[in-house]
Specification:
Its EC number is 3.2.1.52. This protein is of the alpha/beta class. It has 18 helices and 17 strands. It binds 2-acetamido-2-deoxy-beta-D-glucopyranose (NAG) (3 copies).
Length: 541
C-alpha cells in the first residue's frame, strides 16, 4: 500500500500523458471466463451452445481421412502437450478427472489434407499455416493442409476451452477459419551479452508457440561472447565463450533447440554477425580481426574482421560450410550492422588497400567489399541470407531472395519504401525493440504499429513478409528474460498474425489479460499488464 501511495501521482501523470484513463483498463471479473483468443483468428463465429469436456473421455485423434497417423510423432507429441494444457498433468490424479458428462464433446479429429503431411519436415517461409476448426457435437474437426497448420489449430482449440463455475472444462460451438497475415513472425534472443541456459530458450519456444510465432532468430554470438561450439573451429568457444564448458551450446544442445522448435512449427535462424560485433571471435582465431593503430604502431586492440586478408575469407568459407549443415533452415542471418570504421581507418595496411582499390576514404566501400565476398561464400552453400539494413543501405549487391531487416526507428517508413522499391523482401523490427523498457503498458505502443504504413505500391507492400520482436541481452539473462518478453511480445504476435483491422486496444487488453493468465497457468512467468489477478497465479518454479 505504501508503494502504491508513493507512486500514484507518478502513475496518474503517465496515464494522462498517454491519453488513456485509469478506469478503461481495469479488467472486469465477469469477463474473465469469456473466450480470449490470442492472436485473434481471421474468421471466427461462436455460439452460446456449450459442450463439456471430460478428461476421462475426451481424446485428440487423427481423423480417418488424414494423411498423418500415429506414426507422426510431431502430432502425437502435440496431442499430448495440448491435452495437458487443457486438463493438467495426467500423472496427478484429480477427482474431477473420472467424471463423464452427458452433453460432452468426445473428440477432436485432426485431419491433415495434403498427401505429404510434412511430419518429419521443417517449416519454411513458404509454409502454409492455415487451418479450419469446426466445433460441434459429437466431435470437433481441425482441418489443415499439413502438420504446421494443425499445430496452429491445436493452439486455438486449447484457447477455446474455458472453466465454468464448477471448474469443469467447456467449449462452445464454434467455426474458425484462420491463417497468418505475415509469413515471418519472429523473436530475437541474444545469447552473447548473457549466456542463456537451454531451459530458458526452450521455455520461450514454448511461449512462442502459444502466440503463434514461427521464427526464432538466434543472435547466438557477438562481441561479448562466443557460446556456439563449432566442430571445425573448437577454439572459437574454448577461447571466446564466457566459460568453455558451462557457457557453451554443444552440437547436441543446438540440435535439441532446433528439434524442440520444429515440433512447434518454429524455424531457427542463427545469426553470425560480421564484420563488426566480432570481438569474441578474435580470441580463438589468430589474425581474423583488424589490428587497430595508435599513430604508427599497433595499439593492442582489434576492430572488425580484417577484410584485406585472404585468410579471413578462407576461414569464413569453412565456418559457414559448417553452419549451413548444422542449421536446416534455408536462411542464415549474416548481420552486417554497426561496423565501426575508426579501427580500419587507423591501420596503414588497410589504408594502402583502400588506395589500391580506389575506395578513397569511403569505408562503406570496404565494408561492401567484405560483405560481397561473404555473401558469395554463403550463397555457395545454397543458403539464403538475411541481413540488417546497413548492408542494403551501403549498396551491396544482394541475391533476389535476400531478406533485409529494418531495425532503425529513424526514417523507418522511408527505409521500407527504399528496400521494397529495390525489390527486396523485408522484415520490420525497428518498432519492436523490447529491451527498451518503461513504466506502464508499453505493449500498446507495439500493438499500434501498422507495418504496411509506408508509401508504396501494392507490389511493394507484398514484399514486407513480417517482423520480429527483439530482446537484446545487455540487461537480460535467465533471471528476467521470460517475464520481460511476455506478454509484451504477444502484442507483436497479434499484429503479425491477425487481420489489419484488428486494432481495438481496449478489446485487446481484455483478451491479453486472460492470455497472460493462460501463459502463467501453463508455467510461463509472463508479467502482469496492470492491476488484477489470475485465477491460478504463478507460484515460482
Ligand atoms: C459460450 O456459451 C455460454 C453458455 O451458453 C455463453 O454464456 C457464452 O456467452 C458463450 N460464449 C461465446 C463467446 O459465445
Ligand atoms: C588473395 O587471393 C587473390 C584471389 O584469389 C589472389 O589474387 C591474391 O594473390 C591472394 N593474396 C595473397 C596475399 O595471397
Ligand atoms: C531512400 O532513397 C533515397 C533515394 O535514393 C535516398 O535519398 C534516401 O536517403 C534513402 N532513405 C534512407 C532512409 O536510406
Amino acid at each position: 500500500m505504501y508503494a502504491l501511495l508513493k507512486f500514484a501521482p507518478l502513475f496518474l501523470a503517465v496515464a494522462v500523458c498517454n491519453g488513456w484513463l485509469f478506469g478503461d483498463f481495469v479488467v472486469k471479473q465477469k469477463e474473465v471466463d469469456e473466450i480470449a483468443l490470442w492472436p485473434l483468428p481471421q474468421k471466427f463465429q461462436s455460439s452460446a451452445v456449450a459442450f463439456k469436456l471430460s478428461p476421462a473421455r475426451f481424446q485428440i485423434v487423427h481423423s480417418k481421412q488424414s494423411s498423418a497417423g500415429p506414426s507422426c510423432s510431431l502430432l502425437e507429441n502435440a496431442f499430448r502437450r495440448y491435452f495437458e494444457y487443457m486438463f493438467g498433468d495426467l500423472k496427478k490424479p484429480e477427482k474431477s478427472r473420472k467424471k463423464v458428462y452427458d452433453s460432452d464433446l468426445v473428440e477432436l479429429q485432426v485431419w491433415v489434407t495434403s498427401a505429404d503431411p510434412e511430419c518429419d519436415g521443417f517449416p519454411s517461409l513458404q509454409t502454409d499455416e492455415s487451418y479450419a476448426l469446426s466445433i460441434d457435437e459429437p466431435s470437433a474437426v481441425l482441418k489443415a493442409a499439413n502438420v504446421w497448420g494443425a499445430l496452429r489449430g491445436l493452439e486455438t482449440f486449447s484457447q477455446l476451452v474455458y472453466e465454468d463455475d464448477y471448474g469443469v472444462n467447456n467449449i462452445n460451438k464454434t467455426e474458425i477459419s484462420d491463417f497468418p497475415r505475415f509469413a515471418h513472425r519472429g523473436i530475437l534472443l541474444d545469447s552473447s551479452r548473457h549466456f542463456l541456459p537451454l531451459k530458458v530458450i526452450l521455455a520461450n519456444l514454448e511461449a512462442m508457440a502459444m502466440n503463434k510465432f514461427n521464427v526464432f532468430h538466434w543472435h547466438i554470438v557477438d562481441d561479448q561472447s562466443f557460446p556456439y561450439m563449432s566442430r571445425t573451429f573448437p577454439e572459437l568457444s574454448q577461447k571466446g565463450a564466457y566459460h568453455p564448458f558451462t557457457h557453451v551450446y554443444t552440437p547436441s544442445d543446438v540440435k535439441m533447440v532446433i528439434e524442440f522448435a520444429r515440433m512447434r512449427g518454429i524455424r531457427v535462424i542463427p545469426e553470425f554477425d560480421t564484420p563488426g560485433h566480432t570481438e569474441s571471435w578474435g580470441n580463438g582465431i589468430k589474425d581474423l580481426l583488424t589490428p587497430c593503430y595508435r599513430g604508427s604502431s599497433p595499439s593492442g586492440t582489434f576492430g572488425p574482421v580484417n577484410p584485406i586478408l585472404n585468410s579471413s575469407y578462407d576461414f569464413m568459407t569453412q565456418f559457414f560450410k559448417e553452419i549451413s549443415t548444422v542449421f536446416p533452415d534455408a536462411y542464415i542471418h549474416l548481420g552486417g550492422d554497426e561496423v565501426d570504421f575508426s579501427c580500419w581507418a587507423s591501420n596503414p595496411d588497410i589504408q594502402k588497400f583502400m588506395a589500391q582499390q580506389g575506395f578513397g576514404t569511403d569505408y562503406r566501400k570496404l565494408e561492401s567489399f567484405y560483405i560481397q565476398r561473404l555473401l558469395d561464400i554463403v550463397a555457395a552453400t545454397n543458403k539464403g541470407y538475411m541481413v540488417w539494413q546497413e548492408v542494403f543501405d551501403n549498396g551491396v549487391k544482394l541475391k533476389d531472395d535476400t531478406v533485409v531487416e529494418v531495425w532503425m526507428g529513424n526514417k523507418m517508413e522511408e527505409e521500407l519504401q527504399n528496400v521494397t522499391r529495390a525489390g527486396f523482401t523485408t522484415i520490420l523490427s525497428a518498432p519492436w525493440y523490447l529491451d527498451y523498457i518503461s513504466y506502464g503498458q508499453d505493449w500498446q505502443r507495439y500493438y499500434k504499429v501498422e507495418p504496411l504504413n509506408f508509401p508504396g505500391t501494392d507490389a511493394q507492400k507484398k514484399l514486407v513478409i513480417g517482423g520480429e520482436a527483439c530482446l537484446w541481452g545487455e540487461y537480460v539473462d535467465a533471471t528476467n528474460l521470460t517475464p520481460r518478453l511476455w506478454p509484451r511480445a504477444s502484442a507483436v504476435a497479434e499484429r503479425l498474425w491477425s487481420d489489419k483491422s484488428v486494432t481495438d486496444v481496449g478489446n485487446a487488453y481484455n483478451r491479453l489479460v486472460q492470455h497472460r493468465c493462460r501463459m502463467v497457468k501453463r508455467g510461463i512467468p509472463a508479467e502482469p499488464l496492470f492491476v488484477g489477478h489470475c485465477r491460478q497465479e504463478y507460484r515460482g518454479q
